[in-house]
Amino acid sequence: MAQLSDDCFAFGGPMRSVDDTAALIASRLTVVDETETVQLANADGRVLARDLVAPLPLPPFTNSAVDGYALRGDDLPGTAEKAFLVSDRIQAGVAPDRPAAPGQAIRIFTGAPLPEGADTVYMQEDVRVDETGRVILPPGLKRGANVRPAGEDVAAGKVVLQAGQRMRPQDVALAAALGMTQLEVRRKVRVAIFSTGNEIVAPGNVRGPAQLFDSNRFMLMAMLARVGCETTDLGILTDDSSLIADVLSEAAPGQDLILASGGVSTGEADCVKAALESVGTLVFWRVAIKPGRPVAMGVIRGTAFIGLPGNPVASFVTFAHIARAAILALAGARQQPPISRPIRAAFSYRKKPGRREYVRVSLRGTQDGTYEAVKFQREGAGLLSSLVQTDGLVELGEEVAQVEPGQTVQFLAYSDLN
Ligand code: AMP
Ligand code: MG
């Protein structure tokens, strides 16, 4: 287990920007050091522990990109069409047993190796075969056409995937093409999660008249699964600091991170704070983010703790922008900040400068073939429907005070935040 020092999040001082927060978290957390070997079929989403160096070139041999006729470049027709005897036939999967003869064409199929000496292939659609079986090749084809040279995709010895890469389907494909059967990856980040609140009850249990079903834990477990964590569900804890302290100290040793939602808003019973302070350390980070402030960062005997706000939208946004960065740092994943895209705002909005705001928006196609962002009508941080009915978040930077319709803003799709 990565051991953090108790003061690793101890920063007083002013509000911190979202970018600084994510960078600071990444610099404070230590990567899980254990690695394991996974079969290629289970490698998607895992974090590569070592650089992958290509043991062979791709393609491994020079081959035809089309079904057609191969010949030596020196024999290419000059200005008029030219007839060739067809001397050989090479199917995919068969290694040619002799070089291409001068003045002759070779019937060849897609993926079949080019015989020595041949360097150009005519597509079968571009040629005629005469009654004697000779193939008539028209002029105009360039030497090297329709050929895939060995190593054109990947040169042998090159680093093709770097340590820290979170494997995507195309990365798995590349490893397979290089003949790998298994990969060394970092073990999954272990995260325990709980919800807090006397008013929170698990779906399936009896809901009292003043209670809500727990939505955050299920949302956050789904988000954790998408970032590749191994999650332990600690359920719902009442606003009882000694209960929370007991659960924290028992869970901490087996986890890299404990994630909680609720109980961290200022002015509340402060039981998460009291619990953390009895078994570890806790700092409230004043992150300049809306919705979402404040986020609590702590350490319990070397294990990181992050307390997210209870309001579901605030939980969602702070997970996506803060907890996710922490998890990727623990996982040893190279951090790829989500890429926002410019889009036209179809709304007006005023905000306080100095903090970053995330506005829930839907995309709407426009007459000129582009999209514009339509803001969800209401703003409450408790409105789950606002997340369900929209496509993503418009990110309004710290410096922005006002948005007018037609202005270009930055859009982050939910699919890029998971
Ligand atoms: P808190 O951060 O504990 O002050 O909670 C802020 C708001 O979020 C309150 O209205 C809570 O009832 C609500 N809330 C807290 N935790 C959850 C949860 N797990 N699921 C749904 N709503 C929650
Ligand atoms: Mg609460």
TrEMBL record:
Pathway: Cofactor biosynthesis; molybdopterin biosynthesis. It catalyses: adenylyl-molybdopterin + molybdate = Mo-molybdopterin + AMP + H(+). The keyword Cell division does not apply. It is an enzyme of class 2 (transferase). SMART domains: MoCF_biosynth. CDD domains: MoeA. Residues 192-329 form the MoaB/Mog domain. Keywords: Magnesium, Metal-binding, Molybdenum, Molybdenum cofactor biosynthesis, Transferase. One of its GO terms (cellular component) is cytosol. GO terms for biological process: Mo-molybdopterin cofactor biosynthetic process. InterPro entries: MoaB/Mog-like_dom_sf (IPR036425), MoaB/Mog_dom (IPR001453), MoCF_biosynth_CS (IPR008284), MoeA-like (IPR038987), MoeA_C_domain_IV (IPR005111), MoeA_C_domain_IV_sf (IPR036688), MoeA_linker/N (IPR005110), MoeA_linker/N_sf (IPR036135). Its cofactor is Mg(2+). It comes from the Bacteria. Its EC number is 2.10.1.1. GO terms for molecular function: metal ion binding; molybdopterin molybdotransferase activity. Belongs to the MoeA family. Catalyzes the insertion of molybdate into adenylated molybdopterin with the concomitant release of AMP. This is Molybdopterin molybdenumtransferase. The lineage of its organism: Bacteria, Pseudomonadati, Pseudomonadota, Alphaproteobacteria, Hyphomicrobiales.
